[in-house]
């Protein structure tokens, strides 16, 4: 998994951690030549299902968004993010 150069994500850096963004801004699509994550939609959803990427927020039926703060934690250290998620979702 590769992070994109700083210049390609300058819009992302200006968002607050509580901002919400769509999947098309995160992964590679025909209209997004500078994704935050070098992955396809299907790969991203596999990571989400496995707990290896942030869970989405679904404010309404048919709307799926991600918190910028969650994405920043994931992008800064994907392995640490996965470890934290798996420990916080474990048996109590």
Question: How would you portray this structure in words?
Answer:
- It is a single chain.
- The protein has 92 residues and is mainly alpha-helical.
- The protein has one domain (6-88).
- It is built from 4 helices and 2 strands.
- The chain has helices spanning 10-13, 41-50, 68-76, 78-88; strands at 20-22, 65-67.
- The chain has a two-stranded antiparallel ribbon.
- 13% of the residues are buried.
Count of individual beta strands: 2
Query: Mind describing the biggest β-sheet?
Result: 2 strands, antiparallel
Structural class by secondary-structure content: mainly alpha
Number of domains: 1
- Total DSSP helices: 4
- Overall shape: it is globular
Residue windows where pLDDT falls under 50 for at least 5 positions: 3-7
What is the gyration radius calculated from CA atoms?
A: 13 Å
Topology:
Blueprint: H1 10-13, E1 20-22, H2 41-50, E2 65-67, H3 68-76, H4 78-88
Antiparallel strand pairs: 1-2
Helix pairs in contact: 3-4
Could you name the key traits of this structure?
4 helices; two-stranded antiparallel sheet; 92 residues; mainly alpha
Structure, briefly:
The protein has 92 residues and is mainly α.
């Amino acid at each position: 998994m590769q992070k994109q150069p700083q210049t390609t994500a300058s819009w992302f850096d200006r968002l607050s951690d509580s901002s919400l963004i769509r999947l098309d801004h995160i992964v590679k699509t025909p209209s997004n030549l500078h994704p935050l994550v070098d992955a396809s939609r299907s790969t991203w959803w596999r990571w989400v299902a496995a707990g290896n990427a942030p869970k989405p927020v679904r404010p309404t039926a048919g709307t799926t968004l991600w918190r910028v703060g969650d994405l920043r934690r994931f992008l800064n250290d994907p392995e640490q993010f996965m470890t934290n998620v798996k420990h916080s979702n474990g048996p109590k």
